[in-house]
């Protein structure tokens, strides 16, 4: 059974249908990349996988998003619990500027009102920073502000903060778009390591990145401005980039539009 199952999902902003009729299965311990032109609903769809979409006033979702068979949009499901299980890394690194590196890693844990003894806090900080391939670079600077790190280090700090909460799924919304090529490579290498413990869904505008890091790729498209975005197809990444089943996918990948 797939870890994530999306069935007949329609995504609204008020009365406007932004993304229509998405059906998708995502297997455990894989990286799924979502590509497509700007404004086609990739990031909007991504935010529905941890109920961040409904934070926007008037936003709502129809259909089902199931994780391990449980519908995240069931009225009895607590959105806060969903976000513990499904972590998110955003486009721009967003460490809390007034907090130290150590405090940044523990921020999500404390937000969830988990009180840990000092020794457990130290162990969790080290484990999370090691998991984000950052420990060796910052182990002697844990009391310094997270904002003092380079852009690539800040993004890996945000990943450490995410994995400290021990989610099962990590969503990444264009996590490398603000980074230089070397930092981008570091984050891509990290994704490959993380997938042995987590299931990752990444939105990227960089098709080369999708081809490099993902197991499966989904292509979203927009028929016209004012029309809803839709998932055109999803398949193994190699097939999407070598022999897609839809002409629109081939046109996008070959640079004919987008």
What is the residue-mean pLDDT, rounded to a whole number? 93
CATH architecture annotation of the domain at 2-94 and 168-254: 3-Layer(aba) Sandwich
Placed side by side, the strands forming the largest sheet appear as 6-7-8-3-9-10
Unreliable segments of 5+ consecutive residues? none
Q: How helical, in percent, are the residues?
A: 25-40%
Q: How would you name the oligomeric state of the polypeptide chains in this document?
A: single chain
- So how many helices? 10
Looking at CATH, which topology of the domain at 2-94 and 168-254 would you report? Rossmann fold
Strands, count: 10
**CATH homologous superfamily of the domain at 2-94 and 168-254 - what is it?**
P-loop containing nucleotide triphosphate hydrolases
CATH class of the domain at 2-94 and 168-254: Alpha Beta
User: How widely separated are the two ends?
Assistant: 34 Å
How big a fraction of the residues is strand?
Answer: 25-35%
One letter per element, helices H and strands E, the order comes to: EEEHEEHEHHHHEHEHEEHH
> For the CA atoms, what is the radius of gyration?
18 Å
Structural class: alpha/beta
Q: Overall 3D geometry? A: globular
| Main sheet specs | 6 strands, mixed
Protein name: Phosphate ABC transporter ATP-binding protein
Organism: Boudabousia tangfeifanii
GO molecular function: ATP binding; ATP hydrolysis activity; phosphate transmembrane transporter activity
Domain ABC transporter: 4-247
């Amino acid at each position: 059974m797939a870890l994530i199952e999306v069935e007949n999902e329609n995504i609204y902003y008020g009365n406007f249908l932004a993304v229509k009729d998405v059906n998708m299965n995502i297997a455990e311990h894989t990286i799924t990349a979502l590509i497509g032109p700007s404004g086609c609903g990739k990031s909007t769809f991504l935010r529905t996988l941890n109920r961040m979409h409904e934070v926007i006033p008037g936003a709502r979702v129809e259909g089902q998003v199931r994780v391990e068979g449980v519908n995240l949009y069931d009225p009895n499901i607590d959105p806060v619990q969903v976000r513990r299980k499904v972590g998110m890394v955003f486009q721009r690194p967003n460490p809390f500027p007034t907090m130290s590196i150590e405090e940044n890693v523990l921020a999500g844990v404390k937000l969830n009102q988990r009180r840990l003894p000092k020794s457990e806090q130290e162990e969790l900080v080290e484990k999370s920073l090691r998991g984000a391939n950052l420990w060796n670079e910052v182990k002697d600077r844990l009391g310094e502000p997270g904002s003092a790190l380079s852009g690539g280090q800040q993004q890996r700090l945000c990943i450490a903060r995410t994995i400290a909460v021990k989610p099962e799924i990590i969503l990444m919304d264009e996590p490398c778009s603000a980074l230089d090529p070397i930092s981008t490579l570091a984050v891509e290498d990290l994704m490959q390591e993380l997938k042995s413990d987590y299931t990752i869904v990444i939105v990227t505008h960089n098709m080369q990145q999708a081809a490099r890091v993902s197991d499966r790729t989904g292509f979203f498209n927009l028929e016209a401005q004012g029309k809803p975005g839709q998932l055109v197809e999803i398949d193994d990444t190699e097939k999407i980039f070598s022999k897609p089943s839809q002409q629109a996918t081939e046109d996008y990948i070959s640079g004919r539009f987008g």
